[in-house]
From TrEMBL, chain B:
This is Fe-S cluster assembly ATPase SufC. PANTHER family: ABC TRANSPORTER I FAMILY MEMBER 6, CHLOROPLASTIC. It comes from Bradyrhizobium amphicarpaeae. Transmembrane segments: none annotated. Keywords: ATP-binding, Nucleotide-binding.
Amino acid sequence: MNVAVAKTGKGRAVSDLFTSAEGRLPGSPAVVAVRREAFETYERLGLPHRRIEEWKYTDLRALVGEVLPLAAAPDAAALKRAADAVKAHAITGARKLVLVDGVFAADLSDVKALASEAGFGTSREALEKDAGLLKTASTDAVIALNAAMATDGVVLSIADGAQLSAPIQIIHIATAASASTFTRSQVKVGNGARATIIETFVAADAKAYQVNDAVIVTIGDNADVAHIRLMDDAPDAVNITSQFVTVGANTKLNFFNMTTGAAVSRLQGFITLAGEGSELLVNGANLLQKTEHGDTTLVVDHAVPNCVSREVFRAVLDDRAHSVFQGRIIVRPDAQKTDGKMMIRALLLSDEAEADNKPELEIFADDVSCGHGATAGALDDSLLFYLKARGLPEKQAQALLIQAFVGEAIEQIADDGLREHVIGIAERWLERRS
Amino acid sequence: MALLEVKDLKVRVEEREILHGLNLTVNEGEIHAIMGPNGSGKSTLSHVIAGKPGYEVTDGQILFRGEDLLEMSPDMRAAKGVFLAFQYPVEIPGVATMNFLRTALNAQRKARGESEYSTPDFLKKVREVSKSLNIPQDMLKRGVNVGFSGGEKKRNEVLQMALFEPSLCILDEMDSGLDIDALRIAADGVNALHSPKRAMVVITHYQRLLNYIVPDIVHVMSKGRVVKSGGKELALELEASGYAQFEDAA
Ligand SMILES: Nc1ncnc2c1ncn2[C@@H]1O[C@H](COP(=O)(O)OP(=O)(O)OP(=O)(O)O)[C@@H](O)[C@H]1O
Ligand SMILES: [Mg+2]
């Protein structure tokens, strides 16, 4: 225990985090046991730091220091603020599932409309039954902490052959300042199903909060899924998200992630292509300014032959921002004819911005086509001059070129309305530039 | 007051002096032609007037309606009414031409304290102008100049000129890369803009363009200076005898 106290550096015993929250954590006795074990794992490991290889560039001990106490369940005032935030961030036509400070808010969600097309429950309900939701194949400390502390989340199940008529938008809203939320959700997409799932992270006036989210996605065969994650948390917040994705055969998964918020963030994704003939498209855009730190760490595991993966990761870095991209492509011995490509492109708007890239190929099959590349550079002066010569002030000229750069990622979103929504978020990021 | 006055302008690029004391005065309503051999500094002059970075003005002045142009940012110059149709327009992938045109036009209007164009008014204006220049609408949906042929890029420059309605139009080799029909259409576009309030400076190697856009004054540039000025017959003279006679004068 003394060790743990020393680790926080702020005199608060790590286990207080758990014991003070335990009364609020859902779960049968079996679940409680799993949580305890997970918390012990976290206590033993502490927050990840730079000597842990996967966290080399994102030293949470240095960047975050300590995990804040669990946020209180939202009261009426918090829910009212959240309702306003939902209005501001809801995507037109989408079916909303809203989590406020880590707790599912039924009144703000479209459960009824969704019910006709997808199975829905909360993680709280799932955890009252068994601990299945808490199990993932990772010993990562932040994931263990999430398992120990998860208060709620959504459990979605899209039936075989279902063709969702509207996107589903999971909206995470923080209203509590200086507190942590832990959410864990599960999405199952059946064979031949077609769905668009959006995850939005925003604040409703909350400051300096911490989000630890985990999502477990299982997609069947012959499915077509668009998964869009829009992390626009408060500029002084922390967002650590872990995703576990398993893709079946002949399936198309188009994943898009955009980071426009949080002082410190990490998206760590573990995507396994587990069925032949599938196609994975990943487009990431980290828009960072001030001293923001944004990390995307993706492991794409080609477990079977004949799959294609395309990852393009973009970063726009202003001021003293720091972007990290770690991409690993694993090609298992059986996974012949794998076609896996990864591209990293950084746009540096300031000399003091920093980009750390770590692409890795772990190839155990011989008949594959895999590769990675990286480019980094400033805005093109001759293009800037052309725009200025046509009357655009410097900032506006830069904004057009930055939008063009990010636009190449956004273009990969097929739905017009959704694309406009995402462009709007990028534009607001541009307006925040000093 | 002259619209543009370039006085004893000396310009360096990377430690090398390119313009060695150039003088040029352009009044409202006038059409000037500048001719001169490759490398004589014509594009350099146009770039310095537009405010392109990388040029060091070591001496002299550029006044626009009496105001010091060199003190203004390029966007300010554009808002004041300076327009350069580039010899080599750049391609800007990902920036849709329509969006660019509207953003630029409204930025200029805003800088001048004028109200922004509404979308329908803007679209109407673009449609009119592009039609008169024979520019198909689907070209405007593409990225700025992306995949445009050489001639299409030049026409896009004239389109912008017509939209922005500047008071000083500098056309740097507008005729290069244009076929005969396109040249006539572009020249008609330029002529349509000509007004007593607007001046044109046409940089060209070929007398042919000046059959369409008839200059009041022709200048010969050589080695970073204007070495001779005269009427439109000077262009014909050059066509016949070349630049050799001026090399010594410079
Ligand atoms: N960025 C630069 N760096 C070095 N030299 C330059 C640069 N820009 C122009 N120059 C030089 O300045 C001189 C004048 O060039 P400029 O492009 O102004 O000529 P021009 O009269 O427009 O020629 P052309 O008829 O071929 O278009 C040339 O010798 C050119 O090489
Ligand atoms: Mg030239």
